[in-house]
Amino acid sequence: MNQKRTLVAAACAAAALMALTNSSLATGGEETTRVWVNFQPNGKAQVGQALRQAGGQIHYEFDELNAFAVTVPARALAGLSRNPNVTLVEEDPKRYPMAQTTPYGIPMVQADQVGDGNAGNRKVCIIDSGYYLGHEDLPSSTVSGAADGGAGPWYQDGSGHGTHVAGTIAALNNSVGVVGVAPSGMLNLHIVRVFNDSGTWAYSSGLVAALDQCRSAGANVVSMSLGGSFSSSTENNAFNNAYNAGVLSIAAAGNAGNTSHSYPASYSSVVSVAAVDENKQLASFSQRNNQVELSAPGVGVLSTYPMGQAEVGELAVAGVGYNNAPMEGSHRDSRSGALHDCGLGTSTCSGASGRVCLISRGEVSFSDKVLNCQAGGGVAAVIYNNESGMLYGTLGGVSTSIPSVGITQADGQTLLSQLGASASVFVGSGNYAAMSGTSMATPHVSGVAALVWSYYPACTNSDLRNSLNATAEDLGAGGRDNSFGYGLVRAKAALDYLAMQSCAGGGGGDPVDPDPVDPPPPSCSAVGTSCTTGSECCSNKCNGRPGARTCK
């Protein structure tokens, strides 16, 4: 190497060393980083030996490029930069697919079968935690908003929940991220923020004030991925009034996994939405009661999230990548080691020191499994499902110091034959997240309602509601049931049905109404002779649907 080249190479190596030292990550208690190491044409053997002696893990060898791709301890970077056979050390940067994904829920609800060219004549009001204005995959010109009760600016979102909901409804059809039910950017959105960055609840009165803001903004559909266990006769009257004024309110059935009611979803003037998974099975957390009206995808729903705040994961074993879902609340880091079987992970995993723990779901919480891996010296945890489908888990706020991801049962069984192989786990930051809950099911129905209604705006909210119920895909027991309601919402089927009604100019006459949704009574006293305003029956037990007003 001539003197000039030596100086250039040394300068490059020094600059690379500074950048790499700043970006290195901990693995098994030691800082590591993944780099390109370029070598002299005849220096491959010497550099390869130096890398192995330094504890490096060689991923690729490119003879034509005179280069290795390798993960090395950060302490080895200075020595590599001085090695006479090394011409360059630089970061091996990540590359991401510049492509767009269609979440499984979009075709499941037939949104991809209905164009949204008319969406501009409808407005959906989202009452939630705000909206990350400026997201690469969300509209900005057709969005307005307000904050209620000092929750903070509507165009910010400290928790990500509202941004995720908005993406399911209206994520753009572009070259990145995901698509929503109405992806053209024409659908009007109005955001009312009721949750602040640190708060997890709001008052019923705040919800009513938000509903009033939605109505003042001219919203046709109100989407609420929220709820609580106790009803309020005043709140109920507010939703009755909104329904009588032509607004269709849609809310999450709740995530308690039992038969209790959640409000506002269980008011008769509100459409209550249950959650199903990609196999159309009821989500274990979804509430089941006599007010559940429709079902929609709510397990592992991929959608938008405040930029750089979502958890994204990568898993590779023996050079093969596997689909995964980061544990909610996972420590964000990059770790690698030999794959080790920790069984169910119900106790400290022996033999896990410096290794990646492979753990089966079951018996104890996900956080306990990760902590038991960590206690055994494990550097990362991979938890596989004990039933079909991707494992979407949460650590429940428990702090851990190693990255953790979930995978499918099938991939977990495959990896049991790869024990001892080199494995790497990465959990970092991104712009999209997979979330589960009836909160995620609700915007599917809200988006479909706006999409279908946009074709026939002369039809009433009652007409629209009937069309959604009459054409839902029947799931579970025949007919309406307390788990799925009338079934899975379907945009194309509902649109075809609505087109035949007189409000849309169709000639099919009045349809058979599976459960009439007449405007609800202005007060609870009209619901039944034994039910009076303010009574216990009125507040808690008048669960008859409109058109079947019995006190239960």
Give the SSE map.
Elements (H helix, E strand, L loop, with lengths): L2 H21 L1 E3 L2 E10 L4 H10 L3 E6 L4 E7 L3 H6 L3 E6 L8 E2 L3 H4 L14 E6 L14 E5 L13 H10 L6 E2 L9 E6 L10 H13 L4 E4 L8 H12 L3 E5 L17 E7 L15 E6 L3 E4 L5 E8 L2 E3 L2 E2 L6 E9 L14 E5 L5 H10 L4 E5 L19 E4 L1 H7 L6 E9 L1 E4 L2 H16 L7 H11 L19 H9 L36 H6 L11
Parallel strand pairs: 6-9, 7-10, 7-11, 8-10, 11-12, 12-13, 13-14, 19-20, 20-21, 21-22
Antiparallel strand pairs: 1-2, 2-4, 2-5, 3-4, 15-24, 16-17, 16-23, 18-22, 19-23
Helix pairs in contact: 5-10, 6-7, 10-12, 11-12
Give a brief description:
This protein is of the alpha/beta class. The protein is built from 13 helices and 24 strands. The strands form five sheets. The protein has an eight-stranded mixed sheet, with helices on both faces. A seven-stranded parallel sheet has the order 8-10-7-11-12-13-14, with helices on both faces. Strands 1, 2, 3, 4 and 5 form a five-stranded antiparallel sheet that branches.
